Amino acid sequence: MITGNYPNLRLRRNRKQPWIRRLVQENTLSPNDFILPIFLIDGKNKKEKVKSMPDVYRYSINRLSQIIDKALKLKVPMVALFPKTNEKLKNEIGTEALNENNLVCKAIVEIKKRYKNQIGIMCDVALDPYTSHGHDGLIRSNQIINDETIEVLVNQSLLQAEMGCDVLAPSDMMDGRIRKIRNALDKNNFKDVQLLSYAAKYASSFYGPFRDAVG
User: How many independent structural domains does the chain possess?
Assistant: First the structure.
């Protein structure tokens, strides 16, 4: 807390020279502080524009190296994977989320095979990329069924961990899912798999474009 009054307190002293501004600045961002989102699409040799985000693309799995190589060169520590699931694979209960051959699972395996632990992999835990209605939860009688949804999310988390995901990021907003996921991971010998909060994502200006990116 700053105390005192002018003229004894002169805050401009801390802004006079570039070196002091660098020394006392509140935050310094470097590549170490960033996670690179990668949007996935099915197929081969594809690089597809995301219309709502200039210079952002969706990549087929066989083209992931062109963006991950750049991330490594810039010393970005982790990538986050988000699928644009084929509409034909979506249904009301998000079955594709539990398919070991879905886009995310195949991407995890490919990245780990090529890069080992040179870069971390974060995966979204949610059903909205896989449900025909676009919600994160199972729906019955026009209501989200919280507890049944959690069981699906736990299985999704275990599958992604089994494939080699390093960090799970539940964005579904179901009550109680963090404890359930953590307990399931620990019970199944995935104690080193981490959980990352999505606490402020809903308030981001990127939320709308993100929804566009994942279809």
Answer: 1
